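Subject: Re: docking follow-up (adenosine-5'-triphosphate)

Dear J.,

Thanks for your patience while I sorted out the input files. As discussed at Tuesday's group meeting, I've set up the holo structure prediction with adenosine-5'-triphosphate included as the bound ligand rather than trying to dock it afterwards. The sequence and the ligand SMILES I used are pasted below, so you can double-check that they match what you have on your end before we go further.
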Amino acid sequence: MSQKILEAKNITKYFEDPVKVQVLNDINFSINKGEFVSLTGKSGCGKSTLLYVLSTMDTDYEGSIYIDQDEMPKNDEGYLAKIRNEKIGFVFQFHYLLNEFDVLNNVMLPGLKLNKYSKEKIEHRAYEKLKLLGIEHLALKKANQLSGGEKQRVAIARALINDPHIIMGDEPTGNLDKKNSDLVFDIFKKLAHEYNQTLLIVTHDPSFADRTDRIIKMEDGKIIS
Amino acid sequence: MKKGILINIAKALLLARWRQTLVAAIGVTFSITMFVTLLGFMNGLNDLLDGLILNRTPHIKLYNDIKPNANQPIKNAAAYKEKYHFIQSIKSDANKQAIYNSQAIMNSLKKDERVVGFTQKLTAQVFFINGTTDITGVLNGVNAPEEIKLFHFNDYVVAGNAADLEKESNTIILGKSLAEKLLVNLGDVIQLSTARGDRFQLKVVGYFQSGLKDIDMVQSFASIHTVQKIMNKPNSFVTELDVKLKDINLSIPTAKEYAQLYQTDAEDIQTANAQFETGSSVRSIISYAVGITLLIVAGFGIYNILNMMIFEKMDSIAILKATGFSGKDVKSIFMYIAMSIGFFGGLAGLLFGFILSSIIDQIPFVTAALPTVKTFPINYSIIFYIIGISFSLITTYFAGWFPARKASKIDPVVIIRGK
Ligand SMILES: Nc1ncnc2c1ncn2[C@@H]1O[C@H](COP(=O)(O)OP(=O)(O)OP(=O)(O)O)[C@@H](O)[C@H]1O
Ligand SMILES: [Mg+2]
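The structure tokens for the complex came back this morning:
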């Protein structure tokens, strides 16, 4: 049952700028399918850095990353893009949406890129995801006409469109008020427990972290618990 | 499907900045408009000037130059072999001007595969009698129908009809300036005298205007038989054979061959008018240079706008990359943007270029030198339009390539962190 979705082995990373500093120091952990994990730690301890490495966007590290038991190559940009498209959903602190498109198209975009289903099917799926997040009535609005909380929910819907193995979030509630934070948390929880969705969320908010299944704590580039 | 989504994204980015896009496209449109118009106009001029000289110049002219006998008797005297010869006892003979055995040459030319046609010509020095003064002139005996067919003689007969020379005997076509000098009108009879003093009366049936005043002041035309009669020469007497070839580029070797074969002088059009070719190619080079310069400027416009767009859309590019679009996809998106500016701007440029050419084509351009031309000449060759659109696509391709590559290399982590 405990199928490993994400595994990090001996992840070490240095920044050269301006002097060589070690940001990540021999990180080892794994996440099983359906787990709702939060990653916490003091500011500057390397959480975001670790998340970018895990998301395959940053390939400048030592060690190995396994997504769905496949080791990620470090120099095949096209392949990694495909992995991000198909297997990883990403939610940022600042809800990056494409302002040129409406909500529906923003959600559909990674699906169209994956090109696994027909356009009609993708549109239907996008509506389902929006409904799941309670924002289907916003489908035809322009992305820049939404409130912060709404944008963040659209970003989550977009992360879900290709049924990814794992959703990663870098402080997705960091910019939201308590009410919207709770809303987003409830959505994550529902995804994890009702849809068996794996989640790895970086957060500063202790009340958020406490309610997740498991907390990974970092300090100075190391995992301490 | 996958291409479709990239094109959709490109379209959305384009429309989001449609003002700047329009400015870039107008830059391309403007340069292609100028390019097509300039080439059309310059080549129209080239055609016109080529026509002016090349159309009525024989490709090969067979004639006998008046020159002293190359084989002077003194050369045969062994005692003076190494000396300079002051004595040239055998003088040039005007009778030698006639082409020897012209009938045989004409029969042989008729059979020659390379020849479109040829005309005979006979030139005589005459004096036009104008009251108490005589005006020197040249009377050309021509075969009018052939001359019209091969060398567009009719284009330069501005009044009357060139064909009348053959229909009526004792008729003449005068150079326009000459006619004005002689104060004669169509239908009038003029008197002329030959170098030997014989007098003849000829009826004026037309005016000739070549565009070159020096020629129009002295030249006149009559049928070849009339001139033979005036000169008191037999029917076979011709001084020049003008040959038109199927391929003008063969004129040099063919002329050499004829000179050997027929034992005459042979002048080819390429040697005689080399400077015209130079003028034509210089005009073409100038129009290409101006067109390409304009396009390069337009290319920098596209380059700038794409750079600006990429700078503004960093977030969008980061998002696309984070959600699974590869660097190649991002590059394609920006290449689509550049190429569509080039394509649509270029297409509009072709259209406006055609319109502008048509307008120039309507502008009156009347000059005494060119009697057949009424408006500015334009060449509407499809080639210029094909070159125009290809140039615009190539320029925009390169203008788009560098910004697109820059966009494809954007590191999403840097952008996402930067917030
Ligand atoms: N591009 C970079 N070059 C050099 N040092 C960097 C760079 N990016 C981050 N750092 C440093 O690496 C360390 C870890 O940064 P990171 O953003 O991972 O921290 P974080 O845990 O996410 O902090 P926060 O909770 O404030 O977001 C910090 O000390 C930071 O200054
Ligand atoms: Mg961080």
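A couple of observations from a first look. Chain A has seven helices and ten strands. Chain A touches chain B through 32 residues (CB under 8 Å).

Let me know if you'd like me to rerun anything.

Best regards,
T.
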